[in-house]
Write a structure and sequence with these properties.
heterodimer, A: 423 residues, mainly alpha, 3 domains, 5% strand, B: mainly alpha, 2 domains, 9 helices, globular, disordered C terminus
Chain lengths: 423, 215
């Protein structure tokens, strides 16, 4: 019975001390975090009594050669795990020791059973449960940390070569974890749990299930780490290539490559052909396309009219350009517009040269041009208006107009006659 | 399907190729997907035969462009001159790549599909005299041709030239962010090829950047 009282006392003592020391850590959270980040704590920053308590609680220690105080390893590890600081977090792959502990607890359990000490049986059972939990939690924690490092792309180190080293380290950790897993001998555990259903459940079925899940996760992380490593190496290769080639070219300003294009086998990368721009102009020689051309010119006419209108109300030209996208169709329209303009210019030149110049429509007919009359007249008028003022003075333009209604002043231009008058 | 009906489908794609453009998943996703198909490339090749052109790609098929089918003398002369032009722009391009990598603190050299935010680059450069000097040096190279004094104007001019040469694409003309095209990867493949072909001992230059910085 005395043992049970001792146990109870022991547990309540643990509770008291544990709660007190956790509170001590909490009360000095900022100082400890500062120490975690900077690597040391200046004794002057903490009052002497607190300092003594932190040292006796094994939270801090003072290395012989240092004035500064440092966090003890388990405290550093606690913080690293709490803030998932992968640069500091250590992974323990020591499985063998935990298996020895489990074996010991099972022996203790058997012993207590033989002696009929049911309370000790319960407490041993609890310890076995905890030891197995510790074992799986160790893998869980390691896998969590590995995924975290992977998903953050090893962002906790700043340059690529450090990332490559960290990735290598992570791969070695996985290897050790998998090696450690192989130490778990389920045949032995089945033997240990012989005749004890609860023990069998904890030591065999549950552990096996969890280990196989962890094993799968580790293989997956390993695969992803290898993929990431390949990418790191490619990036490193590219960076070095660019950096070194730039360095080489800087130091050899006159560097010339070989005559790759005169080799019998021209390297594929160099063979990039000269551009060919497919140019096209409207063909007026195909009668069967005439109706299409006419339709296009009509569309053009409307567009020009629209443009005039928008120009006069000073809508921004950009907006119009935006709506009239440069496409193949647009290029065809432009080609026709160019032809129309050239024909109109020919009329002006003809007017200058001919003794008895024809009217615009007469020229259209005589030259057998295919433009619809109204488009033609509009273009001639447009050309005249577009001339510089001093050139405009050299021509007179006469409109043959007809009023279309007696109720308003809209006139239709029937024809135009341009006359050249030498200055 | 007859060749002519194929062509009416691929007309705009063929025009881009004929104009000498590099087509990748970034410049035109739809055309790139077409070019990945063997039947499409074959029909375009057939169509371009009289023009002495065929569809070519880089090693990892991430960029397509037109190559000469038969390399005659005029073709050789064109390729020679073209390579000379590329070589003359190589150093400023490589310097720009290392400058961006350093300014943005990134793990790798820019690669197809990466996004470049010009404003971010400008801010980081303005804060750092060494980066400012590097941008100034490369922007004034005749390939980039900037005579501006401000970091902002230099960065814009450099980006503009890179868009003109097809290394960057600007998805929205009003916004200053750019996407890196597959032509950068083509350029790096060319650099790798030249390194191997000319036996350039690049390991000697491993630390030359650091040395230049120190000097």
């Amino acid at each position: 019975m005395a043992t049970h009282d001792n146990d109870k006392q022991h547990l309540s003592g643990l509770f008291e001390v544990g709660a007190e020391r956790l509170k001590l850590i909490g009360d000095n959270a900022k100082v400890l975090m500062q120490g975690y980040l900077t690597g040391g704590i200046d004794p002057a920053a903490v009052n002497e009594r607190t300092l003594r308590r932190l040292i006796s609680a094994r939270v801090l220690y003072q290395p012989d050669d240092s004035h500064e105080l440092k966090l003890r390893h388990p405290v550093t590890q606690l913080i690293a795990a709490l803030v998932t600081d992968e640069s500091r977090r250590a992974i323990h792959a020591d499985i063998a020791d935990k298996l020895v502990a489990i074996r010991g607890f099972v022996e203790g359990l058997r012993e207590a059973q033989r002696m009929g000490d049911s309370l000790r049986v319960d407490s041993q059972m609890l310890r076995i449960d905890e030891a197995v939990y510790d074992l799986t939690a160790q893998f869980e924690e390691a896998i969590y940390s590995l995924w975290h490092r992977l998903n953050s792309n090893f962002g906790f180190v700043s340059n690529l070569s450090d990332k490559i080293r960290e990735n290598e380290r992570a791969q070695q950790q996985i290897k050790r974890l998998i090696d450690g897993m192989s130490l778990i001998d389920f045949d032995e555990l089945i033997e240990l749990a012989e005749g004890h259903p609860t023990l069998r459940k904890i030591l065999v079925s549950r552990l096996q299930q969890q280990m196989s899940a962890h094993h799968g996760s580790l293989l997956e992380v390993q695969k992803r780490l290898v993929e990431l490593m390949t990418r790191f190496r490619e990036q490193q290769e590219r960076s070095l290539l660019v950096l070194n080639m730039a360095g080489f070219l800087r130091e050899h300003p006159g560097f010339m490559v070989g005559d790759y294009s005169y080799r019998s086998q021209v390297p594929a990368l160099v063979n990039h052909a000269a551009p060919i721009v497919p140019a096209a102009a409207v063909g007026l020689d195909k009668n069967e396309q005439l109706s299409d051309v006419t339709a296009l010119v009509h569309a053009l006419y409307q567009e020009l009219a629209l443009k005039r209108k928008t120009d006069s109300v000073s809508v921004s030209a950009d907006a119009l350009q935006g709506s009239v996208q440069s496409s193949a169709q647009q290029q065809a329209v432009e080609a026709r517009q160019q032809q129309l303009k050239e024909d109109a210019m020919r009329y002006f030149i003809h007017v200058c040269e001919a003794p008895e110049p024809p009217s615009a429509l007469a020229f259209l007919a005589a030259e057998e041009l295919q433009w619809p009359p109204e488009v033609w007249l509009f273009q001639v008028l447009g050309e005249y208006n577009a001339l510089p003022r001093h050139e405009q003075k050299l021509f007179t333009i006469t409109r043959d107009e007809r009023r279309i209604s007696t109720f308003n002043h809209v006139h239709i231009i029937e024809d135009l006659a341009v006359r050249f008058q030498a200055a | 399907m007859s060749t002519s009906s194929h062509m009416s489908v691929h007309g705009p794609l063929i025009e881009l190729l004929l104009a000498g453009q590099f087509i990748c998943a970034i410049t035109n996703e739809e055309f790139f997907a077409k070019l990945q198909r063997d039947d499409v490339r074959e029909s375009i090749d057939d169509y371009l035969k009289p023009l002495n052109r065929r569809v070519a790609s880089n090693d990892d098929n991430s960029v397509y462009f037109l190559a000469y089918r038969d390399i005659d003398d005029p073709a050789r002369e064109h390729l020679k001159q073209q390579l000379a032009v590329v070589m003359s722009s190589l150093l400023p391009l490589l310097e720009w790549l290392t400058y961006v990598q350093e300014a943005m603190g990134s793990d790798g050299i820019l690669t197809a599909g990466d996004t470049l935010k010009l404003q971010e680059l400008v801010v980081k450069t303005e804060d750092n005299p060494s980066l400012r000097q590097r941008l100034q040096n490369l922007a004034s190279d005749k390939f980039f041709g900037s005579s501006a004094d401000s970091v902002d104007a230099q960065a814009k001019q450099v980006a503009k030239r890179l868009v003109e040469h097809g290394y960057l694409q600007q998805p929205h003309s009003s916004r200053l962010y750019f996407t890196v095209t597959g032509k950068i990867d083509y350029l790096l493949e060319l650099v790798r090829f030249i390194k191997d072909e000319e036996n350039i001992p690049l390991d000697d230059y491993q630390n030359s950047q650091a040395q230049t910085e120190l000097l």
